[in-house]
Request: fold
Amino acid sequence: MIGTNIHLMIGLESHIQLATKSKLFCSCSTNSSAEPNENTCEICLGYPGTKPTLNKEVVRKALMLAKIMNCKINYNSKFNRKIYFYPDLPKSFQITQYEEPIAVKGEFSIDVSASRLPNGANLSGAALDHSATAATEKKTIHITRAHIEEDPGKIEYVGGHIGTAKYVLVDYNRCGVPLCEVVTDPDFRSIDEAVTYVKKLFHLLSYLDIIDPNQEGVMRTDANISINGGKRVELKNISGSDALEKALKSELSRQSFLFAQGKVIEQETRMYSEETGTTILLRKKEQEEDYGYIREPDLLPITIDDAFVQDAWKQMKKLPEEVESEIISKYKLSKQIAYQLAFKRGLYAYYQSCLKYLKNSDLLAKWLVGDFLKCANWHNYEIEKCPSSEKLIEFMQMIETGKISEREGKELIKKMFDDPKKGLGDLAEKKGVDLDSVISEVLKENQKSVDQIKAGDPKAINFLIGQVLRKAGFKGDPNEIRKKLEKLLT
Ligand SMILES: [Zn+2]
Reply:
């Protein structure tokens, strides 16, 4: 158990892959589904004599990111070489912004009492439960800096982790992929606060298409954690908010244990192992100064003006709260429904594309924020992985025309998510119950109840509904059965 006298300090450094088609300094694709080492060229592999050229789109996306972090923009920023050897770095240096980053001194607000998000809530923000945000308190996280840098390659440890692998494979596709690293002050006082920050940041960046949430490892975080004013330990390369939570919890208990025994906590770099559920030592006492930094001689400083900044900001998509107001004024939906429709990335655009072919905007919204969203969250799907809008239009038409009941609709939506390859016709057919014929059978078998109803005793109808449900294997909607019976018997 961790005692209550522990004073916790956490600072985060998030490496965020900006959504651009090509890499930071060459025209290689950033598509992560390519074969290993397919997206490489002389520039990103650092062949002698090649020179980098800055991708302007990266600067635009970094400026968008800086805006949501409320940072001060540096109109002149520079690149450096961070020199070190590692197998994932063919040039033996990484181009990054060290002395003069593109943005500094930002502020990012998080809801503190909403930190207690449900367990298993994923980075996509899918499981953010906003019905539980009552009595929230805002906390400002100070942003030290945001700088542009290139990603190194990716090392795959075969048969274990860094300490136990049989051998390693290197994929240079990620070499030169554009990152923006956002560094916070050590402002987090609990693990929940740190997890909330990462979740909110990921949601906003995906929402505004500054990152592509479908890319693997699109946001990787290093966490600096210390207790009671002691030395800080850096946890490296944590992908996802679930892993961040586990890594911080494990490291906090390790440090608390040492502290309780009166032992010294040393400054170290560690990694979290999913396998063991603990943090593992990588190296001791590493300082930024241990790296050799020099000015990047092959690149000019980035010089931008106010027009360029404003232009980048103009291209930004609307924030969730702006989308919410638009929904309320345009479609007159309730605040609660508008909030949910606006919150999930891409859901509002999906709603609009379905609505072109449907009559009832309220009904569509109700289904989307209801069972559709529930299934999407359960599967942890971004909107691209959800059933296509064509399929949902077909589904809604079945609902609108009464071809299927509400209850059948709920089951059908689930099947659409579980079995995405099947057509709606096949999925709907499987329900296999013809209610009308079941009802006529039940009426024939229960003449006494039929007579009672006709004689003016309404209670007997409940008995008949029960019989129909039983015969139909409990696959019908009781309200629908009642309506059908009433029609036949009165
Ligand atoms: Zn390249």
